[in-house]
Amino acid sequence: MAGNPDLQKKKIEWAALDVFTEEPPPKDSKLVQHENVTVTPHLGASTKEAQEGVAVEIAEAVVGALKGELSATAVNAPMVPAEVLSELAPYVVLAEKLGRLAVQLVAGGSGIQSVKVIYRSARDPDDLDTRLLRAMITKGIIEPISSSFINLVNADFTAKQKGLRITEERVVVDSSPEYPVDSIQVQISNVESKFASALSDNGNISVEGRVKYGIPHLTRVGSFSVDVSLEGNLILCRQVDQPGMIGQVGSILGERNVNVSFMSVGRTVKRTNAIMAIGVDEEPDKDTLKEIGEVPAIEEFVFLKL
Fold first, then answer.
1. Which one of 32, 75, 93, 161 is least enclosed by Cβ atoms within 10 Å?
2. What is the DSSP string of the chain?
3. Domain named ACT: which ranges (predicted)?
């Protein structure tokens, strides 16, 4: 810059700098010695007010991290602008819960090697950064079956260490581009399921969800459509599609003081089989779950922690 003719000819009247290519700058630097240049040490946050602001920002970031919230300034994490991070926040929760739900449907909970994630969105693929979502799906899958603690920084590395291959597919759908993601589907292949109805036509464990009114919802299990909020815990039942099933299961839970938050029934053909998805606030004890399983029309069921 010292040789800049605009500065030498005073087209640039004065320059003030506190950042240099080489820090500290050499003592004989022509730039530092130039009569039309004011230079200061790197003073970014050295005022009393700035120091106070930085301290508050750090404290808020630490509190957020301890609560499991996302941070736009985490070192080595996917760098996502704060406004994008805010927009993706409910979808990040959905992604983790779908991963946690899918892994609990695997018989034995281990041996998982291949996971496919399908994002449906009205946005152009270049406008949808899925790194955060993939990291949280990885977190949801790995943490329930290992002692590993997964975060945005180590998600991909930990998955690779454990031999977990995660592939992604993006499908453009005709919906509102106002929302970044229309739905997320998680498929786990080449494993046995403890709940056979979670298997899709291609033999993969498949769960799908979307964000509704800011809250993550489960919208599909295997080939069955459902609609239940992913809050608290979840009971999935496959049953004969006949009258009175909701009442029977609801009565069992009510008698055991287990509060039902959401309930949804999905079926493929009328009066054949159906899946009942029940959101519950408390974890039912073994006797309660046994009683649900003994209802004659219930063919299989599973309890899932979210």
1. 75
2. -TT-HHHHTTSS--EEES--SSSSPPTT-HHHH-TTEEE----TT-SHHHHHHHHHHHHHHHHHHHTT---TT-TTS----HHHHHHHHHHHHHHHHHHHHHHHTBGGG----EEEEEEEESS-GGG---HHHHHHHHHHHHGGGSSPPP-TTTHHHHHHHTT-EEEEEEEE-SS-TTSS-SEEEEEEES--BSSGGGB-TTS-EEEEEEEETTEEEEEEETTEEEEEE-SSEEEEEEEE--TTHHHHHHHHHHHTTPPEEEEEEEESSTTSEEEEEEEESSPPPHHHHHHHHTSTTEEEEEEEE-
3. 234-306
